[in-house]
Write a structure and sequence with these properties.
By secondary structure, this protein is of the alpha/beta class. The chain has eight helices and eleven strands. It has one domain: Rossmann fold, CATH 3.40.50.300.
Length: about 240
């Protein structure tokens, strides 16, 4: 059994029977508003509090706006600035999406290489152990050829594994509802998949999470309700009422 990396997120480590296997590449999927960015940020925040340096790569959002959104959602986490200033949680200062979205397929290889070089440079310079890439859906926009996209995704995971990090990468679901879940080819190259679903009407929306797979460890197979609270995510794991 691989050494476990605790997420620190309430209920999630119970669902993962202790945490994510060390150096795993995990896909965090969900629709708009499911909380993918918030959950992935909290993963780095909690690990930073445990002493593990993390790097957050925002491919769709300016770092300042990202921090503002997190603070607005997690109002009880009053030390976010302190954690950022400590250097234990680094947000990439550039937004690669400006380079990624272009009208020329022949530029894809060059632009992808620039993104990976930037990611590798930040990881190496900060000695990050935990990484978030939010979101790899941007790469899908950039690389229109499905075969080439899968090839680049494999290359990205290979590079991250070489760097020895544990990574969460967010991706948009085509539908936020579980019964309409579609598995894209790239899902199968990741070590783990955690899905966030939304069901019901907008005024009575229900949120639920599921660990679809996690190589190298036992995990819950129960679809679990969750809530986004002022102090962070709370997943109501079935394991809370039974020891794992």
């Amino acid at each position: 059994m691989a050494e476990k990396v605790q997420t620190g997120v309430s209920g999630l480590d119970k669902m993962l029977y202790g945490g994510i296997p060390d150096k795993s590449m995990v896909l965090l999927s969900g629709g708009p508003g499911a909380g993918k960015t918030l959950l992935s940020f909290e993963f780095l925040y909690r690990n930073a509090k445990m002493g593990h340096t993390g790097a957050f790569f925002a491919l769709e959002e300016e770092p300042g706006q990202l921090v503002s959104n997190v603070k607005a959602a997690f109002t009880e986490l009053t030390d976010i600035d302190d954690v950022l200033n400590s250097g234990k949680l680094v947000i990439n200062a550039e937004t690669p999406s400006e380079d990624l979205i272009n009208d020329y397929d022949e530029k894809s290889n060059f632009e992808f290489g620039k993104v990976m070089a930037d990611i590798e440079s930040v990881i190496t310079s900060t000695k990050a152990e935990r990484v978030v890439i939010d979101s790899v859906s941007v790469l899908d926009i950039m690389i229109r050829n499905p075969t080439l996209y899968r090839k680049y995704m494999l290359a990205m995971l290979t590079n991250l594994r070489r760097l020895g990090v544990t990574a969460l990468m967010t991706i948009e679901l085509e539908s936020p509802e579980r019964d309409k879940l579609v598995f894209k080819p790239e899902y199968f190259i990741f070590d783990g998949i955690i899905a966030l679903y939304q069901t019901g009407e907008e005024s009575r929306r229900m949120l639920a999470s599921e660990v679809l797979k996690m190589r190298g460890t036992r995990h819950s197979f129960v679809t679990t309700p969750y809530d986004i609270t002022s102090s962070g995510f709370r997943l109501f794991a079935a394991e809370d009422i039974a020891p794992y």
